[in-house]
Write a structure and sequence with these properties.
With 536 residues, the protein is mainly beta. It folds into 3 domains: 184 residues, Sandwich (Jelly Rolls); 161 residues, Sandwich (Jelly Rolls); 119 residues, no CATH class. Helix content is 12%, strand content 31%. The longest helix is centred in the middle third of the chain and has 33 residues. 33% of the residues are buried. It is a single-pass membrane protein.
Length: 536
Amino acid sequence: MATPQTRPTVPLAPYNVSLPPFSPLFEYGPARDTDAAQGWNASYIGVASVADGTPTDGTAYRRTRAAGARISLTFEGTGLYLCFDTGGAAFALTLDGQIVQTTTSAANERVCEQADGEANTLLYASGLEYRSHSALLQVAASTEREFRFFGGALEIGVRTGGKTVDDSRTIDDQDSAWILAPGRGGGQWDSMTAQRMFNVTGTFECNYGRDISAAYKFSGAGGAILHGGIWPDSHAFSVQMDDEDPVNLDATSGWEDGGAAFFVAGDLDPAKEHTITIRNFNSDVPDCNRGKFCCVSIDALQLLRAGKEDLPGLPQDPDDDDNSGGQHGPGPESSKKSNTAAIAGGVVGGVAAIAILGVLIFFLLRRRRRRHEDEAYDGQPPMSDEHLARPWVPPQPPMTAHSQVGTSVVLSAAATGTGSGTGPDDHWSPYTSMISSGGVTVPGPVIATGDRKQRNGPGPVYHSVSQSLSQGNISAPSAPSVAGESSTSGLSPSAPRLAQEDLEQVLAFVAQRMDGGGRAHVASVHEPEELPQYRG
């Protein structure tokens, strides 16, 4: 019985989120904004220090000359892109504990446009399984080898039901649906203006504590991005999505950097109501406001909804269209029927023919024995072995592309490189190789987020007819007897030989029975043992 196919899951729509170097999603160590010899220093191209003036259109970056500098990032998505200028410094990126070494020139890469041509290297990992990932960039810089970091981007997945992403819905900080605690105005949440923020406005709070929060409820979106404002009084805070654990962040900077992504959420259920909350409190820094202002600012909430256009490369429903899209493994066409019954019928017919032949030989020999049992032995040698009747064996079926005489042939999805993760073309990522001390390590199966399909489980295996017989799937007839051995028909070496005229009668009778439809057609097309299951 054929296994029913399950309806493939609609994949998430990919969406890239740009992250400037001052985004609090990047965690800098040993210090976020300090002297470059001790950690990371917040800088702008053409401006050496904050005392030279606040830039309005310069290119932001973080630089370091420290030997043990690092940048860490935890994200949920399928891709990570980092743009920087090595300055001759050594660096290493680990993703989920594995080394990532895929780099390219950043000069013509759109993801590095925010670097304005200042970055020369793009380090990336793409095609990841959609889940939470941890990345760590370690840098060994020096006074002569200054490393400059210009930010990057994340690739997340958005639930759109097979549509593209519509990111046109943006909730401004001044929207009345924001739930501000303890309230707006009167020394609490207040408004500010800044050139680098959405609608040139922001809402900020400098009272520090667990009860200082701003929340927004929404539905109908498969993803969301919370943007906040950064200026010299920005420091530690936290963000929470629904009932998940709060994420502690730090936006410390000596510049009025403006708006940046504070929090990114993908794979949200559009049918449910979600609540995103930002608090001016970080449990890792409970005394952030000691001796200084510790403020937080909200800029806008961007909702990622389903667009009007279909995602390119999505497979159609296999129940609705026999020519559905998606990459299938090798095998027969879908219009072919199963030949198991035909093969079984052919084998049974052959066995029946052998049994009939044996019975006829038995009776003919018995009649000949009775006719000669009173005759004296004439001393002549018996007939030669070449006249000994042997069981009839059906001819071999014609050779096909997947079978050979006397050879068991196995074709599997892995042999063609289009299988479920073990073939030569199935890598953890189309671009990223993961290197460990023991050599190349390829993690488990990868869910592409684009039009590439993957098998859910092992790929189909195709067997030749000879292999099916050898494995006991169908009972094979016994091997024919040869001279000097015991036969399956009950003959012995001392039995009288069959006369030539009797042999001709037996063969004519068997041929007549077989030509009447006693032998079934043995098919040469091989079907998979199980229907392959696909997923989106």
